[in-house]
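assembly run, all chains below
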Amino acid sequence: MTKNLIMYTKYVLYYIYINLKFISFLTTRLLTAIPTILGVALLVFLFLHLVPGDPVELMLGDMVPAADREELRRVLGLDLPISVQMANYFGGLLYFDFGTSFFTRRPVLDSLLERLPATLELAVSGLSLALLLAVPLGIFAAKYRDRALDTSAMGFSLIGASIPSFWLGPMLIMFFSLWLGWTPVSGHDGAISLILPTLTLGTALAAILARMIRSSLLEILSEDFIRTARAKGLSENQVLLRHGLRNALLPVLTLLGLQLGSLLGGAVITETIFDWPGVGSLLVESIQKRDIPMVQGCVLLISLIYVAVNTFTDLVYATVDPRIRLAKN
Amino acid sequence: MNAPLLQITDLTTQLGNPKQPSQVVDKINLEIYPGETFALLGESGCGKSMTALSIMRLLPLSGRIIEGCVQFSDVGDLLDLPEKEMRRIRGGQMAMIFQEPQTSLNPVMTVGRQIAEAVELHDVQRKTNSTKRVIELLDAVGIPDPKRRAKEYPHQLSGGMKQRIMIAMALAGKPKLLIADEPTTALDVTIQAQVLQLLKDLQQDTGMAVLLITHDLGVVAETADRLAVMYAGQIVETATSERFFSKPGHPYGRKLLKALPDASKRKQRLAVIPGMVPSLKQKFSNCRFVKRCDVAIAECSSEIPPWVFGSNNQQVRCHIWQSDTNKPLEQSILRNQDSGVLNDSSQDLHESQDFNQDNKDNQVNQGSKTLDQPSNNILLEARDLCVHFPIHKGILQRIIGHVRAVDGLSLNLYPGRTLALVGESGCGKTTAGKAILQLLRPTAGSVRFAGQELTSLSTNKLRPLRSMLQIIFQDPFASMNPRMLVGDIVAEGLIAQGLNNRSTRRAKVLKLLDQVGIASDAIDRYPHEFSGGQRQRICIARALAVEPSLIVCDEPTSALDVSVQAQIINLLKDLQINLDISYLFITHNISVVAYLADEVAVMYLGRIVEQGEVHEILEHPKHPYTKALLSAVPTIDDTGKQRIQLEGDLPSPADPPSGCHFHPRCPEATAACSLKYPDTVILSPTHSVRCEYAKF
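ok done. output:
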């Protein structure tokens, strides 16, 4: 009984120890991210005030008397010196106040949280499609290198990578929505509306990923330990999957992290084409309207997501590659 | 004799474009008998690895077997087997280990798992799960604490341990034949001795045959029963090991033996083999060695030489070799030896500098005299030099310890002399070289060069002095910018020293290239167009450009073949005589030290444990480590040599053992050794050692 208790305590202590390590890693990463994010916020703030274009003029038009304009300027806080505006904004950030939209007069954070799920949905589906296409394509291309299968797979991937999404998107709409009538033209309305944006995003990503997986796998296949695996008597498929793939996916993982980061920040073009209510289209709308607090909110969110995703990538990397895992301990 | 285990007939393998193939293996015939060690000897590019890969049917994509027959055991012709059957042979009855244990293991899979894979594939009668067998195998190859080690990843193990893992993997299928492709080339001599001994023991226990592929004549002499010498894709000689080393038949083999540096050749130039291996893309209608052979006769260039059979099963593919009554050849070789010194140097591209024995002798004598009053004439003096690398940890990167790469090193280097810094990899010898050149700032200690303290000089103040201090690196392939012309590479130092006139600079570069024996058209070519030996010459020209008085040579020949090594060593020796340069020669190759060095310092874990004149160290070593190191070197005539086998690996310099660093591995250690680092014991004005028991 006591033996069991000791064992159990030991186990719990070990568990806490491991988690402490994990938590300390995470806090380090997040602490180092703070200057990055604040720097981004500062730059965006300054640039937005430097570029021409007055939000008040955009809201009221030319025909409004000067007194009314001044009044609106005062209400929005735009009459204050820029240093005070800055202090107010960064002061607010301290307690997670991202400011209020000039146009809707709603807190920026609410709008962001409202738009985030749609972006998340699109990012996950786009990336899943990309992986589903790219992994087998890359493996087959590497296995049958310089043969017909490889050439056609890489030809497809070249096309995928070179077609811009602002062309592919409208083409898909024309074909599937206007001619065949299978899918809605745009908007966010159930699973069926997800298909075209996913295709647009996914093919471009898949093209790049497939090339990367192929070249990474080919590089690994020329390593000495692959020869060792063959000399052991393993079959070609066993060599490829057990010894080749896991090593080949390491550099791909980094690329994947970067791509996921940019997807979660909103695929601006795709979201705009399909009128997808995500963070990307919110950003574009806000820039057009000179909705300064909203633009800042979007950019902050995007940089936060980038940091989080990259931290996550590093964690995954460390679990896959023992050399990194043990170097940390 | 009983039936051969492996019989290869007319094996021919091609590489590359089928329209213009390289015939890398050309009608090879050989037999290996059960239980014997058969060595395939040759320099890089001669086709020995391709032969092995052809037997295993593991050729690279561009390679294909054209004809031949590989009869193995009771299996029949391996070349006729369907791939599925062949996979059962690979790693089963026939296993292979490779040169680079560092890269030959999958980095993301535990070593236990990697061995288990082989066990699961080949040990079909296995009833229990594979873990038990994996532990047994690890135990058999001498891995301590096998249960824990099985769960580790390759990067957690040392090079020697990794090679043991490779051997364990190979043993999984209980092979009848083990093909070992340069199994110890990447390892230190003491570790090499361990691995070779292990292979020998395993062979005795299991009765397997070993096909040993190597370029190291010493390793062959110590391990092989029979051998075949390969040259340009062909076997040119087969003999028993004993016969070959006493009476080599083919001129190529003779030349290889003469190119080996050792103490007895100090007064003469090393033999070199001029020219290069011919391209294997051509069809040969003559002897492949004829252009490089100094005993060739008219027939050699017009007819393919036949096999000549001699006694003791010696076979030589040569027109002029006549078995036991080989008088004509003996004579012609003798004739060559009479004028040998001159003859070799004329082949060695730079005839202008003849090797003057008397001159050298005088220099040595002068050098010895200066030793008696060292203070006047020291070129470089390092005192208590330390290089510690901090180990960081945690969020704030606080320092939790130091890697003591160099930990209190003192040495003197005299003008025109060569000091060899000897030690195993990881002992800190390269770091010491860099710290002396201030390429890496030392943590403590002083370096005085020509009376000037270097450690306190700023980078700017150091720059003018840089022309006096140069370095030549180990890997001539990686130490030149591949996008720069050779002429620009050599000229860079001249520009840095302010030689701005283009035509003078060009003339100087041409002179330098000539000095190292490189043709003048090299100036407009890129480094990749040259062979390893030529590149090392260019690196030497680059170092010479600024007229240095000290060159640190960091393993300058360890990436080169024996015959090319001989050329580079001859060149270095010539330059020393003509230009009075001092060398700090960093190496692990004892035979090069014996041939080239005036003084020797032996390093272990950041400190010099013994130093003295070359004959004192090599003939009367006092430190147990020096003794073990010297005894581990495989040599050709090792009759009655007592080998001191060191256990384990070099400890980590971050956490050196207490007291004498060597005591955990020392065969002569006593309890006192673990308490205090021994003081210096002076044995002669030049010979000192850091071991309390060296006196007796």
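Chain A is about 80% helix and 0% strand.

Chain A has a mean pLDDT of 84.

not gonna interpret more than that til we talk
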